[in-house]
Design goal:
Blueprint (H helix, E strand, L loop, with lengths): L8 H16 L4 H8 L3 H8 L7 H10 L5 H12 L15 H11 L3 E6 L10 H9 L7 H13 L2 H4 L6 E6 H5 L5 H14 L5 E6 L13 E5 L7 E6 L2 E5 L2 H17 L3 H14 L1
Parallel strand pairs: 1-2, 2-3
Antiparallel strand pairs: 1-4, 4-5, 5-6
Length: 283
């Protein structure tokens, strides 16, 4: 297969997992190349996501590396099979790559978790809310890029509507629901939108109330995208210097624990809906 100019996040993840399998087997790149009947450069390109790899070759690689996890091997081969051009590709070269990587990641996710403390999660945002948040960026965005970012965020909601559905859970602090990032009318519409979405069987919204005692963990907002197997999960976090994608097993377990914790202390879905209803009346 020809060498790619740029790998997507999904292609990079496949290559990275193949590299992890090689390293777990105690093999160097040249050893893997000898087993596969190729050269070290080709192995490097596969592991960087810059060279395509077939399902048959992935299974061959896994066998040579003595991988004993058949579910992982099946998940990796599935990543080679779907070469559909995703809707997000229309934004390539027009928006930061991290926007496209997040879209691709969540589109193929087995499930999605969000934890937010200061803003409504992106998948739940109305267009007015998204525009207000992007407009607050420093330095200001040009109008054409602002429109693109809002449009892209609205298109990401496809994962809440496509079939098969992607189970989605959001844990949101009351502060994010009370924050009027735009007008009073826009805030009412935003709360109504959350209530509407939460009626779907595959969407769960929980709220962490202000009056919760002994809760100080306000710095761990995250997007958690579940893979076909836990080893392929990914956490996405926004920081002052950009978006980071986390996939080390140790860190993933930390974030799983974090989500279980905030889920446990938050209001149940019925209580959360009641609180959102009350907030909508107060706005």
């Amino acid at each position: 297969m020809p060498r790619r100019q740029q790998a997507t996040a999904r292609q990079e993840r496949l290559g990275a997992e193949l590299r992890k399998l090689r390293e777990a087997a105690g093999l160097k790149g040249r050893d893997a190349a000898a087993l596969l009947g190729t050269d070290s450069a080709q192995v490097s390109q596969i592991e960087a996501g810059l060279a395509g790899v077939s399902e048959a070759r992935v299974r061959r690689i896994a066998a040579h590396y003595a991988c004993t996890n058949p579910e992982l091997v099946d998940a990796l081969t599935a990543m080679t099979a779907d070469r559909t051009r995703g809707w997000w590709e229309e934004y390539r070269g027009r928006l930061p790559t991290s926007f496209l990587d997040l879209s691709e990641l969540e589109y193929y996710a087995a499930y999605r978790w969000d934890v937010e403390f200061l803003h409504v999660p992106g998948l739940l945002q109305t267009e007015d809310c998204a525009r207000a948040l992007f407009s607050s960026r420093v330095p200001e965005l040009p109008e054409d890029e602002l429109k693109l970012r809002v449009q892209h965020r609205m298109q990401r909601r496809v994962i809440l509507e496509k079939s098969p559905v992607v189970p989605y859970q959001a844990v949101v602090h009351e502060a994010a629901l009370r924050m009027m990032v735009s007008s009073r009318a826009a805030s009412q519409a935003q709360l109504a939108r959350i209530l509407e979405l939460s009626e779907a069987d595959h969407i769960t919204v929980r709220v962490i109330p202000f009056n919760l005692e002994h809760f100080a963990d306000l710095g761990s907002a995250m997007v958690y995208a579940g893979g076909a197997v836990p080893k392929l999960d990914t956490v996405v976090r926004d920081g002052p210097h950009g978006t980071i994608f986390i996939d080390s097993e140790a860190q993933l377990e930390v974030f799983r624990t974090h989500f279980r914790r905030v889920e446990t202390v938050s209001l149940n879905p019925s209580q959360s809906r009641a609180l959102i209803h009350r907030l909508a009346k107060e706005v």
